[in-house]
């Protein structure tokens, strides 16, 4: 069988890349660069997922980027970037992690708007009316906003993964430390400035409380659209199980600052397919522009580096689930 010309061209394109990779490996393995070589290996082993044009800078350098990602100087070189893949067995149980206390005042809910990247529900945060405390946090953190990340289809969409499992969507509730900082903007740039609760969404039964949000989405279809959205308690979007993982990380949108204490809920909440489909009717674009569906608005996974993911719950049973108990002497006797 004749080899297509396109295949020959692909092979020709591949050879220089292989030579470049081989050269890079030799350089990084040199004694002064061992740390870089380890990072290179970590990046190569990062799980691959479909990458959004609007969130993945290193794969879209020669394309028109979403405005959030236009400035190349915002690409960080830190070691505490988010999101990450949470490896259940590698997380460390911390008995000092108390349950998180959540106290939201529905009257602090202000509006819902399409910011051209997701849709945000924002809250009045001049006082401690809507706060979280406890868990890994030393202070009260005020609720600023919540938003979602989702995929083009139900097979992916969450920013974090658990044992490389993707969920169709992920909710982020963003809080800031009003004890140490005077404003959300200041807190977002400093260590221990933000606390973000992550909640996975999975396919299942219809979510009655979420439907109030879904019904509002047609009115904010385009970028910059904003409507009032009052009296909503986001605690209704939380799972009943108090268990969570926590780690030190970053914002997943520019400026990508490493200011976030992440609190990832172990138990997902159920939503139905039609509700997620309504998320996908939103647009990245403003009125009058060529329409681009708001999908795959998640950042690719980042390497864990030298961080530890702590859990508020014991999980020895996961490690021992395949262990078969040895029979006692009486059981073993005929």
Number of separate structural domains: 1
Largest sheet: 13 strands, mixed
Whole-Å distance between the termini?
66 Å
* SS elements, strand count: 15
Report the β-strand fraction as a percent range: 15-25%
Q: Give start-end ranges of low-pLDDT stretches.
A: 1-65, 317-326, 328-334
The fold-level CATH name is Carbonic Anhydrase II
Class based on secondary structure composition and strand pairing = alpha+beta
Write the H/E string, N to C: HHEEEEEEEEEHEHEEEEHEHH
- Choose one word for the global shape: globular
CATH class: Alpha Beta
CATH architecture: Roll
Radius of gyration: 23 Å
CATH homologous superfamily identity: Alpha carbonic anhydrase
**Helix content class:** 10-25%
Total helical elements? 7
The average pLDDT score comes to 81
Domain Alpha-carbonic anhydrase: 54-313
Pfam families: Carb_anhydrase
GO molecular function: carbonate dehydratase activity; zinc ion binding
InterPro entries: CA_dom (IPR001148), CA_dom_sf (IPR036398), Carbonic_anhydrase_a-class (IPR023561), Carbonic_anhydrase_a-class_CS (IPR018338)
Considering the chains and any ligands shown, give keywords for the structure:
15 strands; single chain; disordered C terminus; Carbonic Anhydrase II; globular; 334 residues; alpha+beta; 13-stranded mixed beta sheet; two-stranded parallel sheet
Characterize the structure shown.
By secondary structure, this protein is of the alpha+beta class. The protein has one domain: Roll (Carbonic Anhydrase II). The protein is 19% helix and 22% strand. It has 7 helices and 15 strands. The protein has helices at residues 5-29, 34-44, 184-187, 210-216, 273-279, 316-319, 329-332; strands spanning 85-86, 92-93, 100-103, 109-114, 119-123, 131-134, 141-150, 161-162, 169-177, 194-203, 226-228, 244-249, 260-265, 269-271, 310-311. Strands 2, 3, 4, 5, 6, 7, 9, 10, 11, 12, 13, 14 and 15 form a 13-stranded mixed β-sheet that branches. Strands 1-8 form a two-stranded parallel sheet.
